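question for whoever is on the cluster today: can someone run the full assembly for these? two chains, 831 residues total. i dont have access anymore since they changed the login thing
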Amino acid sequence: MARALLVALVVLTCGTIYLFIAKIWWMPALVSVSGAAVDREFSSTLLILGVVFVLAQIALGLFVWKYRNTNPATHSTGHRGAEFAWTAITATIFVALSLAGERTWAELRNGQPASTQDLQVEVTGTQFAWYFRYPGPDGKFGATRPESVDASLGSAAAIGLDAGDPAAKDDRVTSALVVPVNREVRLQLHAQDVIHSFFVPELRLKQDAVPGLNVQAHFQATNLGDYEIVCAELCGLGHYRMHAILRVVSEDDFQRWQRQQEGAAR
Amino acid sequence: MSDQSRTDRSTAPGLLGRVFSRDHKVIGLQYFFLSIAAALVGVALSALMRFHLVWPDAALPFFGSIKPEQYLAMLTMHGTLMIFFVLTTAPQGAFGNYFLPLQIGAREMAFPRLNMLSFWLTLLAFLVLLSAFFVGGGAPISGWTHYPPLSAVPSAGPGQGLGMDLWIASIGLFCFASVLGSINFIVTVLDRRAPSMTMMRLPLTVWAWFITAILSLLAFTVLHAAILLLFMDRHAGTSFFVPEGVVVNGNVLQHAGGSPLLWQHLFWFFGHPEVYIAILPGMGLTSHLLSTFARKPVFGYRAMVYAMLAIGALGFMVWGHHMFVSGMNPFAAFAFSLMTMVIGVPSAIKTFNWLATLWRGSIRLTVPMMFAIGFVSVFVTGGLSGPILAQPALDMYLHDTYFVVAHFHLIMGVAAVMGIFAGTYFWFPKMFGRQMNTKLGYAHFWMTFVGAYAIFLPMHFLGMAGHPRRYSQLTEVHFLQPLLPLQRFITFAAFITIAGQGLFLLNLFWSMRKGQPANDNHWEATTLEWGAQREPLDVVRGPYEFNVPGAKADFLKQSGEEDAS
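^ ran it for u. tokens below:
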């Protein structure tokens, strides 16, 4: 039985190491600037914790195997030095990991200072669809009114855009998030009914959209292509099908698309 | 003394007296069987969920195919049943009630009548919860965490009407029962110990139950307040959790000024300590069993006590790590992340001490010992994903994915269940005077240990691939499609593991009637529950005196019995 346990723990550790090295199932390829810090942090954390994992499991298996019911046990009630040593070592590792993690977090949340070149997009989560609003040439989001919400009248009405507000006249509401590559995108996340969560695995970005709050998030996409935006917070029976497309296009294509949007609405 | 007369009356014969018993042993067994009933329902729900994820269109006999809202109702009820009625009820309510008085040399719990009330309230809570399945709209769908506005607005989904109210009523009763129970535990430990049973002579199981009771007292009161506020938002027109301008199904709600995040703060102020409520008794028992079956004192007894106290205290300062992407102020994440990392230190101290207890021992690989060793392995594996999720930048990617599902199932689910199994196999001879079948026990261990890893290790990889949790179907999102083979593997692993639990039930109920008779001290253990309960009880030494140099036997009982022989 002791040998079986040792074998089981060795298989467990070897199997786990293999899966982490082979990366058969892994994070999708990164397409954002800030996500690089996340991936780096993840790798170094995995390495440290992986060593601890292997040492602990193998020690467990070895001790059980080596000290199985053979000799009388050695009487020992503890060792103060050992307690101090492993407390100090783990405290150092965990606090160091924490500090590294905090630095990455600070980088992600603050990033570069906002600039007028940044693309502003308002994201609204509803049961069970995402809507994306661009402020138009005036750079201002017009007012929305809860009373005006009517999803059957198209995207603008779905978020309750107030037609009476001059600033709302040039606002465009779409069901796909189209952004130019290599430009900072600043999102303002809203939720109309319940909590939703904006999640794009390729961007390494997830942020809840909460009713009553205007939550900020930002990213800069580095690769052209279509990526899925999914909902990561349980929002009701259609949670599983609440998804949209993030389309990263070239700056030229983006300008063309914006002109089309404006033309279509006029 | 009045205590004694009260206790004597509680053992009065008669069916009614035996069912509505004030005897801590009877109440312990009642909790035990309640948690088995809850586990059966909870496991059945997970089997249905695993089935639906892999074969979304398949129809079940007598049921038809599972609709999205039914899947979410199962998910909500699975979480609620397992966390409240299994992981909280079995380690503390069942084993705590039965063995805490015995291990400290008390004749009874401090308040036997209150103890009886706690159990019956818990049973009532269980029945009220199950009734939610049978009302119009079905059981609630907002997950066991019930984030408002989804949980606060009856029109936000099926099951959010009467089903949700029944959930609130059930958990309200449960909180009340838990608070009464925890007061009982705390007073019993502080006041009813045998005269020479000092705090530093308490078995680590008792320390764990004691600390768990303190956590329960502080955590369940907050949850109780929170669900009361939620109930008022639903029915009394208040707006604690619902802000202005919320539109559900085209209707503008008449709420203003509430904050959905307030609920999350209150809920996780309960919810995180709850993790430790589930796992601390398992930690105490694991220390106890590793020492007993390695025939060696617990390595660093005092360090173990301090580590549990530290875990209990720090457990109240980390709740914000559930909220890194909630919209909470990002600066708050710095503090919660650091505190969460720090709680890893006492957890690591415990692991080191467990390994050191095994080191140079004389290990008897009994069935309960296998589960205790399994506990350590699973605790390490589940625990080590903690420092990943504790980093807000990494949590931003992994939050609400299967990575989290893997993490908490291993650390609080499987580890705590390993503790429950270890306790059952260990104390069975004391509870029923018979032995459990050893062969079935080993088979059950292997199926559970290997099965749990086969289910939950792959879930880490699903999470790393970005697979969100709480999806009732995997058919809509494209990037989930390559992950389906892994999901299928997990479902098969779950079916086999669940089938393996049949071995446990078979063994349990068969051995209760037909098992080999066990002697008074079946495992050659040291603590008071394994001796004749003679009066007055005297305690002459600490709880883990194994292989003491110069002693005749390899164990010395805490009561000093048999010392002379």
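summary bc i know u wont read the tokens: Chain B touches chain A through 117 residues (CB under 8 Å). Chain B has a mean pLDDT of 94.
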